[in-house]
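Dear colleague,

Following up on yesterday's call, I've attached the two folding results inline so they're easy to grep. Please treat them as preliminary; we haven't cross-checked anything against experimental data yet. The first protein's sequence and structure tokens come first.
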Amino acid sequence: MKTVDVSIDGAANWSATELGSDAGPYSFRQWRAQIMAPTSGDFSLMSRCTNTADVSQPPDPNWNPGGFMRNVVEKVRLTVA
């Protein structure tokens, strides 16, 4: 993986994250980011990975019958109280 970016405005803007150590191919890799969330209400936090060939995860999943190779921008709905 080359980068992980996050968005809180529906993918209009992306911000870089700080990557943790690389444990090699097929391993998980930690990342962290600071975001400026709205003062209240709901919003979506989106994350996408870009590989070393500069190919980013697509916004929509490409499902296959076996459920393998899930590759999509991840979205998490959050609420600020």
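Below is the second protein, in the same order (sequence, then structure):
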Amino acid sequence: MSTVLIEIRRARPADAPAVAETHDEAWRGAYQGIIPGAELDKLISRRGPDWWDSAIRKGSRIALMQFGDNIAGYANYGRNRARSLYYDAEIYELYLRPEFQGLGFGRRLFSSARKDMTQSGLKSMVVWALSDNEPAVEFYRALGGRAVARSSERFGTKVLDKVAFAWQG
């Protein structure tokens, strides 16, 4: 019987290729059929290994969920970017490779990011999800997120609704 180590840790520059691959797989799994194909390809191609390497080296908070030798998912987070929402922190992205979804890993990654932000004095938090991404919407609701704002985002010729979920201290 073998034991697989599961850990959450900060991303290092050497992780950039694996994070780019995870981003690609997770986004295709999450947004295929929601974001038009050409637009989705463009969004993914912008986030190659060099982009992730730069983000990691600049000190972006990127936590990795590592399952054995594989990166199962990542969370990218920090201060809230939406001036109109009065929350301290924001999870910019939280994604798992499709084969790691539904196993409780997303919940663990979310909790780890939230704990890190709370320890940095960022007590309240917001996260945005496309309304058509039902698994994400249900995930954040199940974690106790309260819908606090709506907006929209254009992807090529398609405009998609998005919702902000928030948590207090």
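For the second protein, one point worth flagging: The chain has one domain: 6-167.

Best wishes,
A.L.
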